[in-house]
Amino acid sequence: MKTIIRNVAFGLLGASVAAASVAGPAEDRAAFQKFYENRFPDTPVDDFKNGVYSILPAAREQWESIEEFPPYELAIERGEEIYNKTFANGKSLKDCFGEDGAVRSEYPHWNKERGMVMTMELAVNECLEANGEKPLKYKKGAMADVTAYMSYNSRGQMVNVEIPADDPRALAAYENGKEHFYTKRGQLNFACADCHMHTAGMMYRADTTSPAFGHATSWPVFRSKWQAMGTLHRRFAGCHNNIRANPYKAQGEEYRNLEYFVTYMSNGLEFNGPAARK
Amino acid sequence: MNQGMKALVLGLALSAPLAVAGNGTTAEHIEAATAAYKQLAKDTGYQWTVTVKAIKAAQKALKEGDDAGARKLAHQAMDLVEATRKQAKIESETWQMRVPK
Description:
The complex is a heterodimer of chains A (278) and B (101). By secondary structure, chain A is mainly alpha-helical. Chain A contains eleven helices and seven strands. Chain A has two domains: 25-69 and 164-277, Cytochrome c-like domain (Cytochrome Bc1 Complex, Chain D, domain 2), CATH 1.10.760; 73-154, Orthogonal Bundle (Cytochrome Bc1 Complex, Chain D, domain 2). Chain B has 101 residues and is mainly alpha-helical. Chain B contains four helices and no strands. Classes of the chains: A mainly alpha (278), B mainly alpha (101).
């Protein structure tokens, strides 16, 4: 009898470990969001879209006053010009993204035909190149401006990234992004999760680290440190430099998969870009 | 393999890194560190910025005639490559521990 009980117990233990090890994206997201809700019980869930200001009341007031005359306003205006500019072939970005470019919630998404994650920045450049125009640099400048305009017109759309169940490559891309997020790298031996999950809200020198829940909603941002606009992949690269890891290529597979993961983790929040950040 | 042969193979294996560290020109040491760095990136995707800095500093020192300094930096770069490889191995086995359940 004891042997049977022991075997059943081992079986149950094995089953629970197996269940834990095969947790799918939906279970991952639930555990991820729950982690932040428990860590920051005073923050309403829908406020995590405001990054570090959702957990830092002292800095929030200053940030709100910055948002009254936002430093990204000029970027939106420049972006609008780029968006409406007629290409040499008579077309414009409108032909790819509609009248006002309010397509933020369509990205990132899994492109089944091409077997890859598509991001908004990549789609903008593909539109330009398909129409005989030069592609834009991915980290700042005109790309940040035009996506600021598109994001501004998309404000209020909900993050709703899907991992299609009928294509295992999509899950593999998600898993790749997930592994990247939780893996330590660089000489300082930090994972994204170290700063933005397990020690989120704590001080690193003079700065408080932001929660990763909501990280993907507000791009591009005007960052005080840069005194300019920048894209999400610019920030990824900056983080990697900070921990003394060589950054990956902006819009390369590694960062697109990471964007796929972190955006999926923020499903249910609003897109609220562009934004101002420290 | 008899005991004598085993001891010989073990001895050669242990002395090989020392031979590499001690022999060859400084330029060859820098080249070896550069090749190891590139191979590691290919194998694991892991690269540390400080390793590139050490390699570049070694190249600069050699160009300026500081052979001893250049050799020291080349060995430092090789040590950083090795540390990066260890990090990649450890992380491939442990990253899931950080995922909230």
